[in-house]
Amino acid sequence: MDPKYILKKYFGYDAFRPGQEELIHGILSGRDALGIMPTGGGKSLCYQVPALVLPGITLVVSPLISLMQDQVLSLKAAGVSAAYINSSLSGAQMKAVYRNLLSGQYKIVYIAPERLDYGGFGELAAKLQISLLAVDEAHCISQWGQDFRPSYLRILNFVEQLPVRPVLAAFTATATRQVQEDIERILMLRDPVRVVTGFDRRNLYFEVRQPKQKQTELLKILSQRKNQSGIIYFSTRKKVEELCEYLCSVGYSATRYHAGLEEAERRQNQDDFIHDNCLIMVATNAFGMGIDKSNVSFVIHYNMPQSLEAYYQEAGRAGRDGTKADCILLFSGSDAKIAQFLIDQPPENQNLTEEQWEALHWRDIRRLNCMIDYCKTTRCLRKFILDYFGQQAPERCDNCGTCAVDYVPKDITKEAQMILSCVVRIHDKLNYYVGAATVCRVLSGSKEKKLLQLGLDHLSTYGLMMNVSRERIRDLVSHLESEGYLITEREHQTLRP
Question: pTM above 0.85?
Fold first, then answer.
């Protein structure tokens, strides 16, 4: 069958999106494939269309139960025979799926990576005609990816045990050059057709705000977007619970999602959001992977994510229909401390050696530093993101919070000298560095008890900028950081030259 005929008959589209046709033809010609396409770019069609052309079945390795369930429901609604294999199935249900597989009733089967060598699936797979094995969210296979899952390393071993090697195709939305190379190397892709359609989502507006009161700022943002659908991300389950309850009490249509909820409630809340029964989803980062909701008009991050990969993937859930959408991050210094604390916790149930853990920890610290730099930069935010992913971009995009501000060049040499001198003199006095907030208090001549007890009011830089607002001093400190004149030590959040 012709791929375009399949595209129209089963999925209702008249034409392929950029990159899809090249990947599909490559797969159908027998070549492995690597597709890096932004959220909403149509990655799933790149293996679903070939699956309906090729003989036998297509096996899709997928990381989340909810993602598999959504995909299978959509395929069945389109008239495609599909199933999934994961821990949500009972023993009887699993046996039924195995029987149907052997009798050739499915064209596409989604499977959790943990199930590839569990429950006799390997022996069953040896009896099947698997023409294509697609790896969804392929960045999970790389230790340099934002969501490394050791279970993904089982994929190649599974493939090597098959009597006939199928075509391998890997897809993800966010992958640096190093992660792309890891995907190819670990999966041992053979002469793959590579398609990177680009990471730029021109319809998305990016902004970082540093408000005094985050919740006040959040309510202001929501008041300007009434009757719009959006996602609010928090770093903790407790805050998700609190804010969802509050929003509902003041008349917003909101629901919640985090890993601590019962599966039935998570499923119901997710469905309510997808079908617009609730307009606002308040969630931790457990929500969103694979969610196909086109009309999300804003994504707000109440807390800074730990990496740009995670941020861009989550923010990218806005504007999938191509209309304008806002991605707003509310940043505070405490975000960096929380992220540092979480990164310092050894991962559970990964059986890593000390050397592996140290390598992952160093990777996460480096990515956190990039995320903090994004929050503090005065450069174009879109260019900052695209530079990170290795894509060239103009100096201005005219569609981000930085480009929206008309900066007037100003000589701040004198102010910079005061700030840098203050940092050095505090260190000379105390024999250790302090945080940016303390530096700002010294420069503004604060009378706070702790500052006086330390004797910092006797420094020559004390009160040098008393006629400048503390917010302005903090902005100048952030600018000096973004330009590399000052560095925040991540462990204790102390400022040094």
Answer: no
